[in-house]
Amino acid sequence: MDMNAWSALRTVSREQEAARAPVPVTARRIASFARPHRRRIGGFLLLSVIGAVLTVATPLLAGRVVDAIDARSEIDVVLRLAGLIALIAVAEAGIGLLTRLLSATIGEGLILRLRTAVFDHVQRMPVAFFTRTRTGALVSRLNNDVLGAQRAFSDTLSGVVGNLVTLVLTLVVMIGISWQVTLLALLLLPVFVVPARRMGRRLARLQREGADLNAAMSTTMTERFSAPGATLVKLFGRPDEESAKFAARAGRVRDIGVRSAMVQWVFITALTLVSALALALVYGLGGVLAIGGALAPGAVVSLAMLLTRLYAPLTALAGARVEAMSALVSFERVFEVLDLEPMIRDAPDARPAPEGPTALRFSRVRFGYPAANRVSLASLEEVATLDTRGGEKVLHDVSFEVPAGRMVALVGSSGAGKSTIAQLTARLYDVDSGSVSLGGVDVRELRAEAIRGAVGFVTQDGHLFHDTIRANLLLARPGATDDELWGALRRARLGTLVGGLPDGLETVVGERGYRLSGGERQRLTIARLLLARPRVVVLDEATASLDSTSEAAVQAALGEALEGRTALVIAHRLSTVRNADEILVLEAGTIVERGSHETLLARDGRYAELYRTQFADPATDTAA
Q1: Nearest 5 degrees, angle CA 143-CA 247-CA 210?
Q2: Is the Cα torsion angle 572, 575, 576, 582 positive or negative in sign?
């Protein structure tokens, strides 16, 4: 990646750091996600406390064993103490197993809630969000960052609670045995605290930068590994350049991984070294006191074992701060997506769509696409700052009506606003002023599922999921029977083709349907439309990219789809235009002409000009 791109990524990281929510605010939001697991968390905390108590008990019993041996006590005493130590070890193992089970259950439950919350939230985002966001970056939030957040509960939480209890109990017991030795051991405590704070901040920055770069790599792979992306790279013969760009990003991720690993290793090694030095001091001072008779030999052994129980939790707690900072980064990146407000929402009193034949009406509609800062995030676009431009009107006082059961065609230059009208019909966006109504009801007063059930959409690319023919059809009506599926395929002129496939309805169509031809893909989307049985059909240049043979088959299928339905057709071919009850000519977001095919040709205006330059087909004219 070039230096400008790296600079942009660093700028994004700095902006995120500046805009980051205060830790208490993030903690409260985390608690809201963990609330359904509060009983499990309570049981988990109780078991952690019991485990910590047992951890402290073992060194005390070991010291008593040493004292019993030194005093030449009865063998039964030593055996009873040894048996009690073994029993405590078994109990610790069992409690540790239950604690791990609870922490894993809590962590995985959190992953489920976070993933479903993000997935559901993203599905409510407007189309403008998806046109700007890099898919790989978004998928990274749903996978890598959610997993990072989960570690806060499955690992960090269990370590913090258990180690805090162990630390307090160990200090109390050690002071009770010998306050002098304990004080000496604690003199090295600042060595733990000071580096922990600095290392935590440094690792958090590395974590955030690494997350951004991993998202960038995911985006690259998502784009290049899709059928269109791979084809584009091959057609332009740039595999070496693509490999170099990917290697640069991957190399940067490697560098950050190495730096993070070294920072953690140096930190933990330093703490381990300090712990070893403290242990030497305990043996030295404790041994002197024991020789002088001020301390029992068993007490020295207990203090040494307790010291490992003291510094181990300190080391873990210092590392927990680092882990907690990393988890907070992951939570913040997830919450950043959840904080994006969807622009399309159901009204509190939203109602179903009217039954029966449905008319479509646009009344003085004005509309401009929203600016990026209203629908996206800089980190998801991998830009330094979001574009604040937007709101320029694409449609200006557009008014027309498609009576129930009639067809209206939209024609005009590229960029005139035809597809925008189609998207407003399905309420993929909301108008800035005016209204779009179905059956006399403003779409903003209808439930989203009511609009989806009333309006069917066929686009130019005929998008299909990488799944079976059956699954792609059932997207329109999940409860459809096999007879209904085959009926829709026959009406879409696909029955013979699918029937001849070895797997029939279970045939996988490939990513975006690339295992089918363009015409077959379009007819399958029309079959899906026929299953949905919408009352209003929107065709957005459904035959624009097809050859003549495929177009003929698709047109026949469209005849089935449009029969008896209200239709808004963005026209590309002459046959579609001629069949329309009314033709609207759109230029620069304004309807400049309207009328039938013959009327508009006779007027010799903009439509006649478009007809001569774009629609005219000599063979069709000769036949006419």
Answers
A1: 40
A2: positive
Q: Which of 452, 451, 489, 458 is nearest to 570 (CA)?
A: 458
Phi, psi for 436 (deg, rounded to 5) = -120, 125
Distant-in-sequence, close-in-space partners of 357: CB < 8 Å, separation ≥ 6? 404, 405, 535, 566
The structure's pTM equals: 0.65
Residue 129: partners with Cβ closer than 8 Å, 6 or more residues away: 122, 340, 375, 376
Tokens 């009204």 belong to residue: 347
Tens digit of each residue's pLDDT (9 = 90 or more) over 400-417: 999 998 889 998 888 888
pLDDT tens-digit series, residues 263-283: 777 777 777 777 777 777 777
Q: Please write the tens of the pLDDT for every residue from 145-199.
A: 777 666 666 666 666 777 787 788 888 888 888 877 777 777 766 665 566 556 6
Query: 292 is written with which tokens?
Result: 């002088």
DSSP tag of 468? B
Average pLDDT on 469-477 reads 86
160, 184, 187, 182: which is closest to 171 by C-alpha? Answer: 182
Q: Highest mean pLDDT range out of 12-26, 310-324, 396-410?
A: 396-410
Distances from the Cα of 126 to the Cαs of 14, 370, 459, 484, in angstroms?
Answer: 27, 10, 17, 32
How far, in whole angstroms, is CA 222 from its chain's centroid?
14
Instruction: Output the CA–CA distances (angstroms, integers) from residue 597 to 404, 422, 492, 494, in the order listed.
Output: 20, 21, 27, 31
Q: Is 496 buried (19+), middle (13-18) or exposed (0-12) by CB count in 10 A?
A: exposed
pLDDT digits (tens, 9 = 90+) for 507-527: 888 777 777 877 788 788 888
Which residue segments constitute the domains of the chain, with CATH numbers given? 23-338 (1.20.1560.10), 404-431+441-623 (3.40.50.300)
Question: What is the number of other CB atoms lying within 10 angstroms of the CB of residue 229?
Answer: 15
Q: What is the pLDDT of residue 234?
A: 61
Run of H or E residues at 297: helix 297-338
Which pLDDT belongs to residue 591?
Answer: 92
Tokens (6 digits) for 66: 């040493």
CA atoms of 328 and 269, how far apart (whole Å): 25
Q: Which residue has the tokens 């700052």?
A: 385
- Residue 435 host element (H or E): strand 433-438
List all residues 6 or more positions away from 103 whose beta carbon is below 8 Å from its beta carbon. 44, 153, 154, 155, 157, 158
- Return the structure tokens found at 96: 């540790």
Contact between 416 and 586 under an 8 Å Cβ cutoff? The reply is yes
Taking only the tens place, the pLDDT of each residue in 595-606 is: 988 898 899 888
Terminus-to-terminus CA distance in the chain, angstroms?
58
What string of DSSP letters covers 182-232?
Answer: HHHHHTTTHHHHHHHHHHHHHHHHHHHHHHHHHHHHHHHHHHHTSHHHHHH
**Given pLDDT bands bounded at 50, 70 and 90, which one contains residue 308?**
confident
